[in-house]
Amino acid sequence: MNSQRAVVITGAVGGIGALLVERFLANGDTVLATDTGDEALERLRGQVDKHSKLLTQAADVSSHADTRALAEFARDKAGSVEVLINCAGFFPILPFEEISVQDWQRVIDINLTGSFLMTRAMLPLMKERGWGRIVNFGSGSVFDGTRNQTHYVAAKAGIVGFTRSLAREVGGYGITVNVVTPGLTVTKAVRDNFPPSVLEAQRNSRALQRDERPEDLVGPVFFLASPDAGFITGQTLNVDGGKFMP
Q: Residue 34, SS3?
């Protein structure tokens, strides 16, 4: 496994993102972890080996200026970017008739436009290396159209289309682009916002009848970012314990 990569991970202090940071650091990669708050990123730094190659910088992925600054930081500190993991997400629960234009725009900005802006900023650094892996986070909600999350489901459906089209445009540079669609994953945010009955219904609907944990997503993402996945691009890898089998 190539251990000389620079890996950018958005949403890096979340339940899934923090585990991805740990996995890539354990591989010997340089990891540029970004999230919205300096304090949370500082806590992340305290949780990893002080000798690991972790870089942190706060950024709002929906901000053009912030994503450009992040790319400049990556160039200055790492010289290149080989892997981009677009993990940042925002999934409020709101009935369609209560969604304001502002609600809609914020969810689209973080979940869809954020991946566009991050990719646009990091792509030149990947092209210079002639090798790259982009892994976008979608959602299993696109398969059943989860109610009360119309804005979120629309954004994540957009991620699938974005991934497929982008894969065709950047393949010539040696860059692959894929999307992972998790099921409802029991992070702290999910525990705080979803009642136990919803989690039970999710368990009962799966072939593997247990909660989906953040750890379940680390291996699939790491694989798609590896040389072993060099001939896989434009694909959707559904990781939900067998709820949906598209």
A: strand
Among 127, 49, 120, CA closest to 86: 120
What residues contact 184, with CB distance under 8 A and at least 6 apart? Answer: 140, 190, 194, 198, 199, 202, 212
Q: Look at residue 150 in the predicted model and tell me its pLDDT.
A: 98
Burial of 184 (0-12, 13-18, 19+ CB in 10 A): buried
Local structure of 130: helix, strand or coil: coil
Instruction: State in Å, rounded, how far the first CA of the chain is from the last one.
Output: 31
CA distances from 49 to 44, 46, 53 (A): 10, 8, 9
Give residue-wise pLDDT tens across range 211-237: 999 999 999 999 999 999 999 999 999
Secondary structure of residue 237 in the 3-state scheme: strand
Domain 6-239: give its CATH code. Answer: 3.40.50.720
Q: Which residues of 131-148 are buried (b: 16+ CB within 10 A; e: fewer)?
A: bbbbbbbbbbbbbeebee
For residue range 11-45, list pLDDT tens digits in order: 999 999 999 999 999 999 999 999 999 999 999 99
Residues in the chain: 246
Nearest to 221 by CA among 244, 201, 239, 196: 239
> Which amino acids are annotated catalytic?
152
